[in-house]
Amino acid sequence: MRAVRKLLFDVVFYSLASATAFLLFKDESWFPAMIGGEGNCSQIYEGYPHWPPEPISVKLEIYYMCQLGIHFFSIFEIVTIRRKTDRKYY
Fold first, then answer.
1. Average pLDDT over residues 15-36
2. pLDDT confidence tier of residue 57, bands split at 50, 70 and 90
């Protein structure tokens, strides 16, 4: 039962994270039109080395920080919690 809950949580969480990322990225100049954006991938490094040419929006910074926090927590969980419960940890 525990594995099913974890699987269900992962499906819901990553689906919502992907949908949120799409909604946040779709109006960016570098998000390609072939996957629903309005930009072109060739514009991603426009103005390099002074990148990005326009300031990053606050909503993107918050999204990036939340994702970074989730990945840091996952590393912390693996090292502290799963090390004690998983037999195949090493």
1. 88
2. confident
